[in-house]
Write a structure and sequence with these properties.
Length: about 775
């Protein structure tokens, strides 16, 4: 009959209890084995008790307190005069003592894994005097372990990896289980390991927990992952021991044990001959069951007639071989190509060389398809020259193009007018002869770059383009002229033969041998007595004086005509006039004043005369300012007339108000409140028509009357107020009356409104609103009728 787990634990408890009871003689007080006890100041006596350790089993499941042991003193005669007390760890809460008998019991279930032992102190007291009859002694209660904790894998579950094709016994990972039971007592904490799932591929060492491979040549490509269940059992694996399990996921990592292989021995692709260079022709891939770096490929063309026309590279993401074009394809020249391509692993593992060569070969055939191509010119760029003196219709050169297709369709030519906007040239549509269509000017445009279009007669959509550079040859058609606008001066004290200006010339033409200019004075200026010209023979000339004593008051400006001739064939010439001004110069010959009037003025007027003229001008300015000031002070009184509405007149004043900062001009609160009372003040610059002493009391009258009276009062108060703003200031009347039939009186709002409102009622408001009635009314006297 086998014992279950609970029955086995009870059996162990009974055995332990028996052992404890049998050892009580050692725990009780024994006078015969006591050691001497010394106490200062007293005669030496023997100690009446000694202690041994008490033991108690953990996890007691009974209902009664668990007996631990007994304390007894030789002094105790059994008459109840001695009482026992207990103190220390767990006293009264866990451990109790019978003060009469000294029996110790545990009142709670104990767990060794929580606390392995308790240290307590015991003492025997005289019950009457409550004085100790024995010195206090310390003892220990040890909790005796039972197998109540199963092994646990604190780091589980585990993951590990091992290379595929590893030999038997290759270490994968080590697992460790811990048991909370007492490792020094029995076999409760002695663990052995076993494998429950994962055989026959893996095994585990019972004592160390090291997992190893158990089969050779495990192939990742066949199965790449294994789930193992490892068990740890205490009691050295015997029956009745507790166990715990964990899972271990083992992944086979890849090695390069599979050579690349092309799925097919040959491939064929068709490509049009118009495919541009660097375009992709095809993608091929050699299959490799490996992954990562072990599956990286290298492709190369090892043979064939397309070695210089095609190339192959590898796509690092997909490991495909990409075949691209290196040169343009021409169906008329070659219709097909054959390539021998090799694929090989980049990283080869020497351990698996016996599995075969880690490379493979395949054949790729590329068929070139014919397409309708545009005409092709015999040259990519044509260079032509023509003289700028060429007449219209002069032949410049000829371009030629042909259809490269087998059909060899006839070609027609034209000029792309976007490159010849001025239409200087024409081309014969059939022959390709280019001629001039307008007169040419090299100085305007020395080189014309035009594009010639060649299109097939049978398919005009096929257009070829040729480029023509036409250089214009120069002729001598521009006369020389001054290189710049010269500002020439001569000092009044200049000496004869003094150089006053060096001149040069420019010519828009561009002769092959360069420019050569000749300078001279015109025939009418050759014999003048003032200046002469010297040709320096280096395309420059110098202007020199012939006399001295130039005077501005006699002649301030001289005009010298200069004749310039170029070296062209035929030569051209021009006459350019040099303007020379006479100036007053300082001692260094630097011109100071060249104005003749400034020289003449001091001769006619003295300094006193100039001062008198300035004084008269200042006097006139003062008189004008006084007149203006007096007229501003003497203003016309503003008299109000019932028959004359001043608002119909526009009067301009140059006074400006204080702007937004002027808060003293008027009281906004007064304009917004009908009931405010303001003291009437007299305005000095206006003669009022009526002086108001008090404000009339408002009665319940129609809204239009209230509005009219309100405006009228505000106008009169502004007229008689001495603190009122200038005439051009803005008076704000923010009152329209209660339920006013006039609604908004804004002229801006009225003009922008598209409504057909009737404003005839304005004529009923009195003469003050007559102008508005004339502008907006629809009666016979309307302003716009």
């Amino acid at each position: 009959m086998k014992l279950g787990k609970v029955e086995f634990c009870h059996f162990l408890q009974i055995i332990a209890l028996f052992l404890c009871l049998s050892g009580m003689n050692q725990a009780e007080l024994s006078r015969s084995r006591s050691k001497p006890y010394f106490q200062s100041g007293r005669p030496r006596t023997k100690r009446s008790w000694v202690w041994n350790q008490f033991f108690v089993l953990e996890e007691y499941m009974g209902t009664d307190p668990l007996y631990v042991g007994k304390l007894h003193s030789d002094v105790d005669k059994g008459d109840g005069s001695i009482k026992y007390i207990l103190s220390g760890e767990g006293a009264s809460s866990i451990f109790i003592i019978d003060e009469n008998t000294g029996d110790i019991h545990a009142t709670k279930r104990l767990d060794r894994e929580e606390q392995a032992y308790y240290t307590l102190r015991a003492q025997a007291l005289d019950r009457l005097t409550n004085k100790p009859v024995e010195p206090e002694s310390e003892f220990v209660i040890k909790i005796q372990d039972i197998n109540d904790n199963e092994p646990k894998f604190l780091d589980g579950p585990y993951t590990a990896g091992v290379p595929e094709m590893s030999p038997v016994g290759t270490s994968v990972v080590q697992v460790t289980a811990t048991d909370a039971d007492d490792p020094t007592y029995g076999n409760s904490a002695r663990v052995v390991y076993s494998i429950l799932q994962g055989q026959p591929y893996f095994s585990v060492e019972p004592k160390t927990g090291i997992i190893k491979t158990a089969l050779p040549n495990m192939d990742r490509e066949a199965k790449d992952q294994y789930l193992l269940v490892i068990q740890a059992k205490d009691m050295v694996g015997q029956n009745g021991g507790l166990s715990g399990t964990t899972s271990v996921t083992v992944t086979l990592t890849d090695v390069n044990d599979n050579p690349p292989r092309f799925p097919r021995r040959s491939y064929q692709y068709n490509v049009p001959e118009s495919l541009p260079v660097a375009s992709v022709v095809a993608r091929i891939k050699a299959a490799d069951a490996d992954v990562g770096p072990n599956a990286e490929m290298e492709y190369k063309i090892v043979d064939g007639d397309g070695l210089g026309v095609f190339k192959i590279s590898v796509d690092k993401d997909t490991q495909e071989g990409i075949i691209t074009i290196q040169k343009e394809l021409d169906f008329e020249a070659k219709t097909s190509y054959t390539l021998r391509i090799e694929a090989a692993n980049k990283h080869v593992d020497s351990r698996f060389q016996s599995l075969g060569p880690f490379s493979d070969m395949t054949t790729v055939k590329i068929i070139v398809e014919d397409v309708d191509e545009p005409p092709v010119f015999t040259s990519r760029l044509y260079s032509m020259v023509v003289s700028e003196a060429a007449k219209v219709g002069t032949i410049i050169g000829t371009v030629a193009a042909h259809d490269p297709d087998v059909s060899n369709s006839p070609v027609r030519y034209s000029i792309d007018r976007n490159t010849d906007l001025e239409r200087y040239f024409n081309i014969d549509a059939n022959s390709g002869v280019i001629t001039t269509a307008k007169s040419l000017d090299r100085e305007t445009n020395a080189v014309h770059n035009i594009t010639v279009l060649a299109m097939e007669s049978q398919n005009p959509a096929q257009i070829g383009r040729g480029y023509v550079a036409i250089t214009i040859l120069d002729i001598n058609d521009n006369a020389p002229e001054f290189a710049m606008e010269y500002e020439t001066t001569v000092c009044e004290n200049a000496q004869p033969g003094q150089v006053i200006q060096k001149i040069s010339a420019v010519d828009k033409d561009d002769p092959p041998s360069g420019h050569q200019f000749y300078f001279s004075l015109t025939a009418e200026a050759a014999n003048n007595h003032n200046f002469t010209l010297q040709d320096n023979k280096d395309n420059t000339a110098s202007v020199l004086t012939r006399r001295n004593g130039f005077r501005r008051q006699e002649q301030s400006v001289f005009y010298l005509p200069i004749f310039i001739v170029d070296s062209g064939s035929p030569s051209l010439s021009s006459t350019n006039t040099l303007t020379i001004r006479v100036c007053d110069c300082d001692a260094d010959g630097i011109a100071q004043t060249c104005n003749a009037e400034a020289y003449i003025l001091p001769a006619g007027l003295s300094t006193g005369a100039l001062i008198a003229i300035l004084a008269c001008v200042l006097t006139l300015l003062v008189l004008v300012l006084l007149i203006v000031t007096m007229r501003r002070r003497k203003k016309e009184p503003l008299i109000f007339d019932e028959e004359r509405d001043i608002r119909e007149n526009i009067v301009r004043y140059d006074d400006e108000g204080g702007g937004e900062e002027d808060t003293e001009a008027f009281d906004m609160a007064a304009l917004r409140n009908l009931n405010i009372i303001r003291d009437t003040k007299t305005r000095r610059d206006v003669t009022p028509e009526i002086q108001f002493l008090s404000r009339p009391t408002f009665k319940s009258i129609p809204d239009n009357v209230i509005f009219r009276e309100f405006i009228w009062e505000r106008l009169k108060e502004a007229d008689v107020d001495p603190c009122a703003p200038p005439y051009d200031s803005l008076q704000t009347y923010a009152f329209e009356g209660n339920g006013s039939v006039a609604e908004s009186l804004s002229s801006l709002d009225s003009i922008s409104s598209n409504s057909d409102q009737n404003y005839d009622y304005l004529s009923d408001w009195g003469p003050r609103f007559k102008r508005l009635a004339d502008m907006y009314g629809t009666g016979p006297d309307s302003l716009y009728s």
